[in-house]
Amino acid sequence: MSDFLNAPEAASPAPHSPGAPVRHTRAKGEPRFPDGPKADPAGSHFERRIRSFQPRRSRVTAGQADALQRLWPKWGLDIDGQRVIDLAELFGNDRPVVLEIGFGMGEATAQMAAGDPDTNILAVDVHTPGQGNLLGLAERNGLSNVRVANGDAIILLREMLRPDALDGLRVYFPDPWPKKRHHKRRLIQPEFLTLAATRLRPGAIVHCATDWEPYAEQMLDVLTAHPDFENTRPDGGFSPRPAFRPLTRFEGQGLDKGHVVNDLLFRRVPHRTAEQDR
Ligand SMILES: C[S@@+](CC[C@H](N)C(=O)[O-])C[C@H]1O[C@@H](n2cnc3c(N)ncnc32)[C@H](O)[C@@H]1O
Q1: For an engineered disulfide with 41, which of 78, 83, 147, 239 has Cβ 3.0 to 4.6 Å away?
Q2: Looking at the annotation, which residues are catalytic?
Q3: Residue 3: inside a domain, yes or no?
Q4: Mutation test of ligand 1: which of 47, 53, 121, 182 has the most ligand atoms closer than 8 Å to its C-beta?
Q5: Which domain holds residue 225?
Q6: Is 21 a member of any domain?
Q7: How would you class 57 by CB atoms within 10 Å of its CB: exposed for 0-12, middle for 13-18, buried for 19 or more?
Q8: Could you give the number of structural domains in the chain?
Q9: Distance, CA 125 to ligand 1 centroid (Å)?
Q10: For position 52, which CATH number holds?
Q11: Pocket residues: Cβ below 6 A from ligand 1
Q12: pLDDT tens, residue by residue, 23-59
């Protein structure tokens, strides 16, 4: 895959150039991006739940802000938890849809979308600069098969997607939460898999990758133990990185530190009958 999707916006942008951080002072209550993603689309302060992400103050470059304002109305989706989405309507076709949770800056997402135009990617993250970056990449590279969702993937899965809506799920380098007291924040847990399974068609692939070995072991344990998934590896272990998954930004940082990367590919098994559940 060419490097064009990885091109940085600018090395050292001059003030007011397209790559410069936006330093606009807002009046109280004024939205950060008038036509862009909402700061807290689901009003999440009303829901007490341990989250897998940490809210961060994020500097948005002028290029990202421009993409958020222009492209959000066309390709953005706020996860408000208030409606069920028709994915064929969202993408304008009924091709298979893969959900990617936590796309970060979106370079790998854009590369995968370019490499497989017949698959739609619904990419979700809470990270505003990344949302702007991915929208910009999609526009610059003529990608019509990416939609960017803003908010908590759990609410998207639980409230806004129909049963069997998805043909795949990708979770690349989820926050590892290495401290023991934070393990409960890790995304890949039995309850999460039970929810995801309800939205995945039989045969859909769940693809996870991590450079944090204890988390990789946890992923392997919980996926192997879960009745709705089976390992695509006959030996029951980790998979080699499939050719379609580019190196990601977090992966690069992990590799620089000498971390070992593990991929896991599990298949959603056919639905159990009521008979089998008894
Ligand atoms: C460590 S980064 C990895 C980013 C990218 N996949 C990569 O490999 O470069 C994890 C990302 O997942 C996002 N994230 C974590 N939990 C999430 C959730 N429940 N819903 C949406 N995004 C989430 C975080 O905001 C963060 O951007």
Answers
A1: 78
A2: 175
A3: no
A4: 53
A5: 31-277
A6: no
A7: exposed
A8: 1
A9: 6
A10: 3.40.50.150
A11: 52-53, 101-104, 124-127, 152-154, 172-175, 187, 248-251
A12: 556 666 566 788 899 988 988 666 778 899 987 777 9
